[in-house]
Design brief:
Blueprint (H helix, E strand, L loop, with lengths): L1 E5 L20 E2 L2 E2 L2 H9 L4 E6 L4 H8 L8 E6 L9 H4 L1 H4 L4 E5 L9 H10 L4 E7 L7 E5 L5 E6 L8 E9 L2 H7 L11 H10 L3 E5 L12 H18 L6 H7 L5 H9 L5 H12 L34
Parallel strand pairs: 1-4, 1-6, 4-5, 7-11
Antiparallel strand pairs: 2-3, 6-10, 7-10, 8-9, 8-10
Helix pairs in contact: 10-11
Length: about 325
C-alpha cells in the first residue's frame, strides 16, 4: 500500500498564522502538525509516501522531512498548484500510486487511540474497495456524514447535511484499492470548483465496495481548524505527554517500534536532537532497548494495546479541516 498526505489548502480559518506558512507546518504543542498524519501512515505499515502541497510550501516540507530515509521511509513530494479538492490527490499522485492500493490522510489530521496500529494494518490487509473511518460528533452538519444500518453496514454518505441522518462524521483518513485513480479521473468539479472525496466514496458505495469503520469509545476527534481549537489540541497533547512521560506522534520512536530502523539508527536520530527533551527521550528509549534488536514488529507487553509505543490509556483521534 502507498500513502498520500494531502497538505494543501489555504487554511483561511487560521489566518494570519497561515499567511506565509502552511497550516500543516504549524506546531501542535512540540511537533509540526504534519508529524501526526505521517505517524498514522507509519503505524499502518506504509513506508512509501507522497506529500502533496502548494509549490511554495514544498521546499519547507523537504527541509523538515527530507527523503524519509532516516526513518526507514521513502518520501516524495508533488505540487497542487491551487486548491482543487481532496480527490485531486489521486490525479496528482497517480504515478506514485502505480498499481498499488493507497491510504490518504489529510495533513491536518491527528489520529490516536488504543490498538490503532493493529486496526490500521488489519484494514489495509483486508481492503476490498474503499474503507472510511467514522467518528460520532455533536455537530455532524459540519462534516461528511455516514448513514449506517443497525448492523453497522454503510448505507449512504452526505456532505455537510442540514439534517444529518446520523452523528457519524467521516474523518480525513481513507483507504482505497487501485480503482480510485480511474474513478478520480472521471469526476466533475463540484459547485465550489473542487473534486470531492465524497463523490469517490459514493461511487464505491454504489458498487457495493465501501466499508465504514467506526472509531468509538477510547478515541477523541479534535478539529483544529480554528485558533482556539489549535490551542486546545496542543494543550491536550501537552497534558498527555507530561503526565504519561511519552511522546505522541514521535516519528523516530514509531520507526523503531515498527522495525523500520535499528537501535543503532535510533541512537543516531537521538543525537541529531542532542540537548533537547526530544533527544533525551529518544536516547532513553535506545538505552532501554536490547542491543540485539532491530525489532520485527513485536511490541513489548506494555505496548500491546497500542503499538504506537504508548500505554493503554485511551488517547486521541483528531481530524482537522480547513
Amino acid at each position: 500500500m502507498k500513502g498520500i498526505i494531502m497538505a494543501g489548502g489555504s487554511g483561511r480559518r487560521l489566518m494570519p498564522l497561515t499567511g506565509v506558512l502552511s497550516k500543516q507546518l504549524l506546531p501542535v504543542y512540540n511537533k509540526p502538525m504534519i508529524y501526526y498524519p505521517l505517524s498514522v501512515l507509519m503505524l499502518a505499515g506504509v513506508r512509501d509516501i507522497l506529500i502533496v502541497s502548494a509549490p511554495d510550501q514544498l521546499p519547507l516540507f523537504r527541509a523538515l522531512l527530507g527523503d524519509g530515509s532516516r526513518l526507514g521511509l521513502r518520501l516524495d513530494y508533488a505540487e497542487q498548484k491551487r486548491p482543487g479538492g481532496i480527490a485531486e490527490a489521486f490525479l496528482v499522485g497517480a504515478d506514485h500510486i502505480g498499481d498499488d492500493s493507497v491510504s490518504l490522510v489529510l495533513g491536518d489530521n491527528l489520529f490516536h487511540g488504543p490498538g490503532f496500529s493493529a486496526l490500521l494494518r488489519d484494514r489495509a490487509e483486508r481492503l476490498d474497495g474503499c474503507t472510511i473511518f467514522g467518528y460520532p460528533v455533536r455537530d455532524p452538519q459540519r462534516y461528511g456524514v455516514a448513514e449506517v444500518a443497525d448492523d453497522g453496514k454503510l448505507l449512504g454518505i452526505e456532505e455537510k447535511p442540514a439534517r444529518p441522518r446520523s452523528e457519524l462524521a467521516v474523518t480525513g483518513l481513507y483507504m482505497y484499492d487501485n480503482d480510485v485513480v480511474e474513478i478520480a479521473r472521471w469526476l466533475t468539479p463540484s459547485a465550489r470548483g473542487e473534486l470531492e472525496i465524497t463523490d469517490i466514496n459514493r461511487e464505491y458505495l454504489e458498487r457495493g465496495r465501501a466499508e465504514l469503520v467506526q472509531l468509538g469509545r477510547g478515541f477523541v476527534w479534535l478539529d483544529t481548524g480554528t485558533h482556539d481549537a489549535l490551542l486546545e489540541a496542543g494543550q491536550y497533547v501537552q497534558i498527555l505527554e507530561q503526565r504519561q512521560s511519552v511522546r505522541i506522534a514521535c516519528l523516530e520512536e514509531i520507526a523503531y517500534r515498527m522495525g523500520f530502523v535499528t537501535v543503532e539508527q535510533l541512537r543516531e536520530l537521538a543525537a541529531k536532537h542532542e540537548q533537547t527533551e526530544y533527544g533525551t527521550y529518544l536516547k532513553d528509549l535506545a538505552d532501554r532497548a536490547r542491543v540485539s534488536e532491530p525489532v520485527s514488529y513485536a511490541p513489548p507487553p506494555d505496548l500491546a494495546a497500542d503499538p504506537s509505543g504508548l500505554p493503554h490509556t485511551p488517547l486521541h483521534a483528531g481530524a482537522m479541516r480547513s
